[in-house]
Amino acid sequence: MSDNGILRQVPGDYIAQALEVLPPPASAPEEKMEVVIEAGHLGPVKIFAERHQARHHKHSHYFWVAYRAEFATPT
Asked: Taking CA 39 as the corner, what is the angle to CA 33 and CA 43, rounded to the nearest 5 degrees?
């Protein structure tokens, strides 16, 4: 199992907020992307996401999945 950093500590609301900031997954230029958000009491957190595809017969749907989080250094 891969290391997911502090992902367990980040509340789901903040993960959802991070995924909404990313470009639409169907037209994203990269398979994996990252975004820094302010995660309440945790402070700035970098969320790593990868694009997944769900297929059903002839149809498919792309979506982002957060797979890692780590503390971000303030800039």
From this structure: 105
Residue 38 lies in a domain: yes
Task: Please give the residue range of the domain that contains residue 53.
Answer: 7-71
Write out pLDDT tens, residues 12-53. Answer: 999 999 999 999 999 999 999 999 999 999 999 999 999 999
Integer Cα distance of 60 and 38 in angstroms = 32
Domains identified in the chain, total number: 1
- pTM (predicted TM-score): 0.87
